[in-house]
UniProtKB/TrEMBL annotation:
One of its GO terms (molecular function) is protein phosphatase inhibitor activity. This is Abscisic acid receptor PYR/PYL family. Keywords: Nucleus, Signal. Pfam families: Polyketide_cyc2. Its main location: nucleus. It is found in: Nucleus. One of its GO terms (cellular component) is nucleus. Coiled coil: none annotated. GO terms for biological process: abscisic acid-activated signaling pathway. It comes from Salvia splendens. Residues 1-22 form the signal peptide.
């Protein structure tokens, strides 16, 4: 894979965030992550999201991005949603951002962290390096966005755990 990345100018990075919850049930975190139709539940830069049609593999969402980022819209396709293994895959297929050929996979699973049972969230991505930017610049930008999203996910999940809640809306069933 790394040979392909060097040959075609693609950047790949894995970012990990480990969450320790007082009630370490990974389904609580998954109940947020799996909501392709509501990323704004934990992604602080998303102001609005509209899914076209039924929620299924191949569904497309139009995301409005809050000001402060070098974009206002993103069009994203659901590539994978596995409720058994807790895996979500998304590909950016349009928008006014510079993240061309961006794909990400998020996994959520129980893990032992520092000797305590907790939940681990791993997000991995691949993206083209835009003309005029270096790999380091692209990596720094995307990593900062992912870390912000994962930090927000941790905060929202921790609040849910303290309240004994699962996501307030039941997620739609995949068709």
């Amino acid at each position: 894979m790394w040979a392909l990345i060097k040959t075609y100018g693609i950047l790949a990075l894995m970012v990990n965030l480990e969450l320790l919850l007082s009630d370490p049930q990974d389904y609580k975190v998954w109940s947020l992550v799996r909501r392709f139709d509501q990323p704004q539940k934990y992604k602080p830069f998303v102001s609005r999201c509209i899914v076209q049609g039924d929620l299924k593999i191949g569904s497309v969402r139009e995301v409005n991005v809050k000001s402060g980022l070098p974009a206002t819209t993103s069009t994203e396709r659901l590539e994978m949603l596995d409720d058994q293994e807790h895996i979500l895959g998304v590909k950016f297929v349009g928008g006014d951002h510079r993240l061309k050929n961006y794909s990400s996979i998020i996994t959520v699973h129980p893990d032992v962290i520092d000797g305590r049972v907790g939940t681990k969230v791993i997000e991995s991505f691949v993206v083209d390096v835009p003309d005029g930017n270096t790999q380091d610049e692209t990596c720094y930008f995307v990593k900062a966005l992912i870390n912000c999203n994962l930090k927000s996910l941790a905060d929202v999940s921790e609040r849910m755990a303290m309240r004994g809640l699962v996501s307030t809306n039941q997620p739609p069933t995949l068709r």
